[in-house]
Design goal:
This protein has 177 residues and is mainly alpha-helical. 42% of the residues lie in helices and 0% in strands. The protein has seven helices and no strands. Helix 1 runs antiparallel to helix 6. The chain is globular, with a radius of gyration of 16 Å. The termini are close together. The N terminus and C terminus are likely disordered.
């Protein structure tokens, strides 16, 4: 659990980096720490922290955060999970399909994911809020994602409890996984 919280905290720092205007070099050490634990690998061009990740890259990183990359690949290859999106690369398909099957991601339309579009801090916060058990349209509106995350969600140190009947972290791996 401590590893998951550490990785989540580091991921939140990257989320803040996506929203901020600070130089990429100020986040190199965070990227290196995430790389050391296998969550963030960068591209052939390095970490490329001077740009926002694409939606595909963000999906891959989030699946790695879960520790579910191998599970996603195996389930996708076995045909156990799928997605309706036609614009996702072969590399990102298992991750996007896994997130889609878990209810963590939506497309930009019924058949497109917006795979090569930049993933904004708002989009990534929506991923994280869903992963924590919040539901858009019930607990927060997508238009208000960043405000909700700042006040109640992953960007707030004193995160409020989930509504009654919700366990939180519904998708995070439990003991023994």
């Amino acid at each position: 659990m401590k590893r998951i919280l550490t990785v989540l905290a580091a991921t939140l720092l990257l989320t803040a980096a996506m929203a901020g205007t600070a130089s990429a070099s100020s986040y190199d050490s965070v990227a290196e720490e995430l790389s050391a634990i296998g969550v963030f690998r960068g591209t052939a061009g390095g970490f490329e922290l001077d740009r926002a990740p694409t939606r595909s890259e963000a999906a891959i990183m989030l699946v790695r955060l879960y520790g579910a990359e191998d599970e996603a690949k195996a389930a996708y290859e076995a045909g156990e999970i799928s997605m309706p999106f036609t614009d996702v690369s072969e590399t990102a398909a298992p991750s996007v399909a896994w997130l889609y099957s878990q209810g963590i991601t939506n497309g930009t339309s019924a058949t497109t994911f917006g795979a090569s579009s930049p993933c904004s801090a708002k989009m990534y916060c929506a991923f994280l809020l869903r992963a924590l058990g919040y539901e858009d349209g019930v607990d927060f509106l997508y238009a208000d994602t960043l405000d909700f995350a700042m006040l109640h969600g992953p960007l707030h140190a004193g995160r409020r409890p989930l509504p009654a009947g919700r366990s939180g972290c519904r998708h995070l791996p439990g003991p023994g996984r």
